[in-house]
Write a structure and sequence with these properties.
Largest sheet: 5 strands, parallel
Helix content: 40-55%
Number of helices: 13
Structural class: alpha/beta
Shape: globular
Strand order of the largest sheet: 2-5-8-1-9
Number of domains: 2
CATH architecture of the largest domain: 3-Layer(aba) Sandwich
Order of helices and strands: HHEHEHEEEHEEEHEHHHEHHEHH
Oligomer: single chain
Length: 327
């Protein structure tokens, strides 16, 4: 690998300070969400990269609690939207209403105008309503009847889907799945973590008394600083080759898009920073690839008949793509 340039590069002292601050956030969230440090780190990575998260998991495992704990730890605003078949786009974005006192129309913002938004059971809403959310996610602003409202920063949407109950749902199209920065599964806690959770929170709400340890402004500053974290050109090209290899895989009907290349590049940077390094390694790319790429891949009909998953195919692709060696 080539030597790193020093111009405007994020210094190791800056990395240590940012990591220390994010470690405090993780510790604070872990007071509420027990035994899920890996999931919390992935959410922090998405927050740093200003991306959005799709959670595919069963009910009752703490998705709402996790989102609330993250928002409280950052002193951010939080809104939860329960998606149902009768939910309308205006229920998300907001509406104009006539104020008889002033004789003027005013705009009432919808629940999307928050720092952290939990879009619960997104696939239960109609495609039209899903599109209203996904447009706000992509543009980071709302335009209602010609009036544009810029959404706050940071802005993180955590959308959930129940992978078990599919009756009465509207599956997200591939083009919309591609807009999610990463996908994760929380999973059930192990026995020790579940026992600790019951002991710790059996008598009161786990969110009571949870105070902010960081501010929204600081998170935005960290996101800006992350762009200066050094990535060797060979590591960058490795991420690109990995994404391009999915497009040539016979077991996939559709590989990952160029948007996925950008997401993987940014995610690798965030992973390196969370590990306390001021440079990115191929291991950072490999660590984030399953979370960033798998939900963007479409299996061929033959692969589905054989019972293969996108994760299985991606694992094989990663084994074939040569990893750059430091020299």
């Amino acid at each position: 690998m080539s030597d790193a340039p020093t111009t405007n590069r994020l210094a190791s002292a800056e990395v240590a300070a940012i990591r220390g601050a994010l470690d405090r956030v993780q510790t604070n969230v872990e007071r509420v969400v027990v035994g899920k440090s890996g999931v919390i780190r992935l959410l922090l990575a998405a927050l740093l990269c200003e991306g959005h998260v799709l959670v595919e998991d069963v009910p009752g495992i703490g998705k709402t609690t996790l989102a609330k704990a993250l928002a409280q730890s950052l002193g951010c605003t939080f809104r939860r939207i329960q998606f149902t078949p009768d939910l309308m786009p205006a229920d998300i974005t907001g509406v104009h209403y006539y104020d008889p006192r002033t004789g003027e129309f005013r705009f009432r913002e919808g629940p999307i105008a928050a720092n952290i938004v939990l879009a619960d059971e997104l696939n239960r809403a109609t495609p039209r309503t899903q599109s209203a959310l996904l447009e706000a996610m992509e543009e980071r602003q709302l335009t209602v009847e010609g009036v544009t409202t810029v959404l706050p920063r940071p802005f993180l949407v955590i959308a959930t889907q129940n992978p078990i109950e599919l009756e009465g749902t509207f599956p997200l199209p591939e083009a919309q799945l591609d807009r999610f920065f990463l996908r994760l599964r929380i999973g059930y806690p192990d026995e020790a973590a579940e026992d600790e959770m019951v002991e710790r929170h059996g008598a009161s709400s786990p969110l009571e008394g949870l105070s902010p340890v960081l501010s929204a402004k600081e998170i935005v500053a960290f996101s800006t600083a992350l762009q200066r974290l050094y990535v060797d050109p060979e590591v960058r090209r490795y991420a690109v080759r990995l994404v391009r290899a999915t497009r040539e895989e016979p077991a996939l009907e559709l590989g990952a898009s160029p948007r996925a290349s950008l997401a993987l590049f940014r995610a690798a940077r965030a992973h390196a920073l969370l590990e306390g390094r001021d440079y990115v390694l191929p291991d950072d790319v490999k660590a984030m690839a399953p979370h960033v790429l798998a939900h963007r891949l479409i299996l061929s009909s033959q692969a589905r008949l054989r019972g293969r998953t996108a994760e299985d195919v991606l694992r094989e692709v990663m084994e074939r793509v040569p990893v750059p060696i430091e020299g």
